[in-house]
Amino acid sequence: MLARTALRASTLRSISRQTTKRAASSSSNASKEQSPRMLNIAGTAATVAAVGSVSLYYQQYGFGNTVYAGTPAEEGLHAPHFPWVHNEWLKTFDHAALRRGFQVYREVCASCHSLSRVPWRALVGVTHTVDEVKAMAEEHEYDDEPNDVGDIEKRAGKLSDPIPSPYANDNAARAANQGALPPDLSLIVKGRHGGCDYIFALLTGYPDEPPAGTKLPEGLNFNPYFPGTGIAMARVLYDGVVEYEDGTPATTSQMAKDVVEFLNWAAEPEHDQRKKMGMKVLAVTSVLLALSIWVKRYKWAPLKTRKIVYTPPKH
Amino acid sequence: MTITNSIYNVLFRRNYVFVGAVFASAFAFEMGFDTISDKVWDNLNKGRQWKDIRHRYVEEE
After folding, report:
1. Record: contact A132-B44, CB cut-off 8 A
2. Could you tell me whether strands A141-146 and A152-156 are parallel, antiparallel, or unpaired per DSSP bridges?
3. CATH classification of the domain holding A215
4. Which cell locations does it reside in (chain B) (predicted)?
């Protein structure tokens, strides 16, 4: 490849040299004397056209900028990156925060949002003890098996039951919320661009009053982080909405942080175990990698250091 | 030479002893490695895991 490039370069240079030489040698001819000047003009014009079109493109679009079809309002404000401790490589969730987050979910979010993929038993040994979870499950009623005459009776909840949804189905949820469907929160952290950052920014990003000039349909609230800026959910987290049992001050951002961490756990319950296993795998494989590099060098050393000498026969 | 010879005689000479040694040492390594890495992990995440806060909520009978 390198050789070919060098070859081509030398050819180009020799061609130009030949042209100048020929032009110089045939200076007696008047019509041919014009040609270098014409060439110069053509070259200058081509350069100006090229530079001009590139700068026009740069002025119009810029380089390396992505062009969005939507306006910034339609796109929604991009959430900043927050320093989530549980996003560090070797950190688990803060389980005290998960417990507080579940309390926020239960007392605030659960009035509209379901958490249908999470059964009660998943909380055991993560945020609550068995007895606490059993007591919470028993507060709710679930359909029992059909009895002897085929009627379905109600029974108290068990550990194996899912956390109950606030509405019977999506249509009931829409009807109760002016046509807007509160999404299920089980996998919401995985299901939204920006994940934790986006949800935290959304929960804490409601301005006191919408900026001047914004027009929103009836029943929608302004939130710059929501794509389209009109969100059916009103601000729900105000300082002191819940009272934490561990004495943490329940500020808006504290509650938002806790509930987002809890929702991240709901979406990735395997998170802690996965990172621990990842640490072990990296530790073992880095030793194995170092070993294999050493073995390779050991085996190749004679080949790399040997010298083959050809002694021509003497006659 | 005597050490290598004795290692050879004890471990590598009979295949069943060799394979047994491989399995036993893998077992021992796994136990030791898990214990050490669990300790490192718990130290890195001090106060963050459920077992660190469990005592606040569990009721002893």
Report:
1. no
2. antiparallel
3. 1.10.760.10
4. Mitochondrion inner membrane
